[in-house]
Amino acid sequence: MARGRTFTQEFKDEAVSMVLDGPRPITHVAKELGIHDTTLGNWVSAYKRRHGGNVPEPAGDNSERELQLERENRKLREENAFLKKAAAFFAAENR
Q1: Residue 35: how many CB atoms within 10 A of its CB?
Q2: What share of the chain in percent tops pLDDT 90?
Q3: Where does the source fall among the domains of life (predicted)?
Q4: How far apart are CA 13 and CA 6, in angstroms?
Q5: Global pTM?
Q6: How far apart are CA 80 and CA 88, in angstroms?
Q7: N or C: which end of the chain has fewer CB within 10 A?
Q8: Among candidates 7, 8, 72, 15, which has minimal Cα distance to 45?
């Protein structure tokens, strides 16, 4: 069986947290990251098996509002990174 790309554990953990921390489905996150949705689904399933199906609560004494703002900030950073990649792609296409 042919093997595709390999990903670091850090990349996998970040991808899983993008799915579990927000309301976005696996397919949307996978498309943003340029990976197959089945691959990301397997990573999420493995994470849930390792952690008993529980999504970890963030450590610390953060209020619910702070947690909401952190999730929103993460989402906006991800969207910004995606838009930068898209702009670079279209700029290269026009050359």
Answers
A1: 18
A2: 17
A3: Bacteria
A4: 14
A5: 0.55
A6: 12
A7: N
A8: 15
Q: How many CB atoms lie within 10 A of CB 31?
A: 14
Q: Which amino acid is at 63?
A: S
Length of the chain: 95
How far apart are alpha carbons 33 and 40 in whole angstroms?
10
How would DSSP label each residue in the chain?
A: --------HHHHHHHHHHHHSSS--HHHHHHHHTS-HHHHHHHHHHHHHHTTTPPPPPSSS--HHHHHHHHHHHHHHHHHHHHHHHHHHHHHHT-
**Token digits for 50?**
């390792």
Taking Cα atoms as reference points, which of 20, 12, 22, 14 lies closest to residue 69? 22
Q: C-alpha angle with apex 14: 91 to 86, nearest 5 degrees?
A: 10
Separation of alpha carbons 27 and 51, rounded Å: 22
